[in-house]
Design brief:
about 200 residues, alpha+beta, five-stranded antiparallel β-sheet, 7 helices
């Protein structure tokens, strides 16, 4: 009986040791994962010193981790703080035409409730809002372009959303533009005429 109890004691100690080792490794892995997430979150935080400085496009691209897409930085009251040169060129604007203006003034009136609600979601949740749209933005000639967007909140050091980066994707010409659409249309017409001729 004593041998049995002694064996049980060793088994118990062994099981406890294994459990402690497992929980320690899980904690270490979890801590590493947490640190990665924290770094990702910090990428969207601006210090007080950074807030007092005017920044260029390269700075904002680094903040939102995007090297190629069109984007706009708007303040929490949707005043345009910055716009990428690509978006300005696409829309026919100069920098002085849009900075300090209300972003909603460029949104097609019928799409305003939807866009306003999307901004409220970001401000309330403090999370990235993907796949916003499609919605229309008016260019310098008051002609509409169709966009999809991702809204990225940017925080100050007090965890308050101070800016929203709106990464824009032009989807108004999914086939690549009016010329390609025209060519495709002419190709389809030629193929249709061939089909009608062969049937007759």
């Amino acid at each position: 009986m004593t041998q049995f109890l002694l064996r049980q004691k060793y088994v118990f100690i062994l099981v406890c040791t294994v459990l402690v080792m497992l929980s320690t490794s899980v904690f270490v892995i979890g801590e590493k994962q947490f640190n990665v997430n924290q770094e990702d979150i910090q990428a969207f935080v601006l210090t007080d010193e950074q807030l007092e400085t005017e920044h260029n496009e390269e700075f904002y691209r680094k903040i939102i981790n995007n090297t190629k897409d069109e984007f706009i930085i708007v303040e929490s009251d949707v005043i345009i703080k910055f716009a990428s040169s690509k978006w300005e060129n696409e829309m026919g604007f100069k920098e002085e035409d849009i900075l300090g203006n209300n972003f909603f003034s460029y949104v097609h009136p019928q799409d305003l409730p939807f866009i306003a609600n999307s901004f409220i979601v970001v401000l309330d949740s403090k999370e990235i809002n993907d796949n916003i749209g499609p919605f229309r933005l008016n260019d310098k000639n008051e002609e509409s372009k169709l966009y999809m967007a991702t809204a990225i909140p940017i925080f100050d050091e007090k965890d308050k959303v101070i800016f929203i980066a709106l990464v824009l994707h032009d989807v108004s010409n999914p086939l690549g533009g009016a010329d390609e659409e025209k060519e495709l249309s002419e190709f389809n017409r030629a193929e249709l005429e061939k089909l009608i001729t062969s049937v007759n």
